[in-house]
Amino acid sequence: MSSPHTPLLELRDLGCERDERLLFSGLNLQLGAGDVVQIGGPNGAGKTTLLRALAGISGDYQGQILYAGQPLPDAAWDFSRDRLYLGHLPGIKKSLTPSENLAWYLAQTGARISIDEALAAVGLYGYEDTPCYQLSAGQLRRVALARLHLTEARVWILDEPFTAIDKLGVSQLEALIARQSAQGGVVILTSHQDLTLPQLRLVNLQDYRPGAAKSSSVHQTKTELDGQSGARVEAGVGHG
Q1: Residue 115 pLDDT > 50, yes or no?
Q2: Would 94 be classed as within a structural domain?
Q3: pLDDT greater than 60 at residue 95
Q4: Whole-angstrom Cα distance, residue 11 to residue 27?
Q5: Residues with Cβ < 8 Å from 167, sequence gap 6 or more?
Q6: pTM for this structure?
Q7: What's the pLDDT tens digit per position in 32-84?
Q8: What is the extent of the structural domain holding 71?
Q9: Residue 218 — pLDDT band, cuts 50, 70, 90?
Q10: Among 16, 51, 101, 204, which has the minimal tally of Cβ within 10 Å of its Cβ?
């Protein structure tokens, strides 16, 4: 049983590969109630690969992922019930309506609001029964984001959630992430969007590429973050 001081989600000396190439290594990260962490780095740095590992889609990683103090896969069942993963693609069946796409998810979550209310919250009031193949890319993204209103998950793993949504949608999603944080949840995301969330912490995977040397400025930033509430990031040494 975890103590009150146990991180909700923890990465220990984590490294990920793709196509037999080591993308990053030595990543240590602790996330507790209220933390919002943005994973950064150039294309190919391993951002999506990392999120897929956290979501349980990929087991191709080194090191440990722990949920509530228990390593995966031992805690995989509990973690799967307590996380929501939204991938880079919206994951919407275009032959179905928004309501039909969300119906299966609502049945699993037992949310306190209805599908119609969730769709209205993302600006899709009146589109409940419109086939998704008639919707724009931004509207499809909003259907996927409606899950955030239906979920009770404490951990959100979001890969480029701001893709294809307009300025108002960006503002609304930031507010939703802020609410998740205020309620004691955890959000870990990738985005090319310049976010204005005051509680946001940044982790640049470029600092963990094989053979990377930690600059003094990076170390200072991470040290400063260690002294604040929120994610505690420990500068790991990359494996060359």
Answers
A1: yes
A2: no
A3: yes
A4: 7
A5: none
A6: 0.85
A7: 999 999 999 999 999 999 999 999 888 889 999 999 999 988 998 999 989 99
A8: 1-82+154-163+184-240
A9: very low
A10: 204
Give the model confidence (pLDDT) of 139-152 as tens digits: 999 999 999 999 99
89/133: higher pLDDT: 133
Say if 19 falls within a structural domain: yes
> What type of residue sits at position 83?
R
3-state secondary structure the chain: CCCCCCCCEEEEEEEEEECCEEEEEEEEEEECCCCEEEEECCCCCCHHHHHHHHCCCCCCEEEEEEECCEECCCCHHHHHHCEEEECCCCCCCCCCCHHHHHHHHHHHHCCCCCHHHHHHHCCCCCCCCCCHHHCCHHHHHHHHHCHHHHCCCCEEEEECCCCCCCHHHHHHHHHHHHHHHHCCCEEEEECCCCCCCCCEEEEEHHHHCCCCCCCHHHHHHHHHHHCCCCCEEECCCCCC
Q: The domain spanning residue 36 has which CATH number? A: 3.40.50.300
Residue 104 lies in a domain: no
How many structural domains is the chain composed of? 1
